[in-house]
């Protein structure tokens, strides 16, 4: 699993029929301090995430193990919205405070 922030949406009017009805979001991976790290990723939204939210996403074969993405050709899926995280006893992110 990877931490990221939702930074945008991706709209596709033409796609494989198996991908119909799925919402795509653009997510920016972050490090444990919450700072951007690496390149943005397009991920299928399985949990109703929105812009600005911190999320957990999975890639590879793990991305096809949610109910929404089972047997669909996706490589990244948002599977959780993060409420908070801490590192070494220090809260690094808390929803609503660090947004």
What does this protein structure show overall?
The protein is an all-beta fold and 99 residues long. It has a single domain, classed as OB fold (Dihydrolipoamide Acetyltransferase, E2P), CATH 2.40.50. It is 0% helix and 41% strand. It is built from no helices and seven strands. The chain has a five-stranded mixed barrel. A two-stranded antiparallel sheet has the order 6-7. 22% of the residues are buried.
Return the string of H and E elements.
EEEEEEE
Number of domains: 1
Choose one word for the global shape: elongated
Number of helices: 0
Spatial strand order of the main sheet? 1-2-3-5-4
Q: Which architecture would the CATH scheme give at its second level?
A: Beta Barrel
Radius of gyration: 14 Å
Name the assembly state: single chain
User: What characterizes the major β-sheet?
Assistant: 5 strands, mixed, barrel
Give the total of beta strands. Answer: 7
């Amino acid at each position: 699993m990877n931490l990221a922030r939702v930074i945008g949406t991706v709209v596709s009017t033409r796609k494989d029929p198996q991908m119909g009805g799925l919402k795509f979001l653009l997510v920016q991976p972050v490090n444990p301090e919450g700072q951007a790290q690496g390149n943005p990723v397009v991920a299928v939204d399985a949990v109703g995430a929105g812009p600005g939210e911190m999320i957990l996403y999975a890639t590879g074969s793990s991305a096809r193990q949610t109910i929404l993405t089972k047997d669909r050709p996706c490589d990244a899926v948002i599977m959780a919205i993060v409420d908070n995280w801490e590192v070494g006893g220090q809260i690094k992110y808390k929803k609503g405070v660090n947004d």
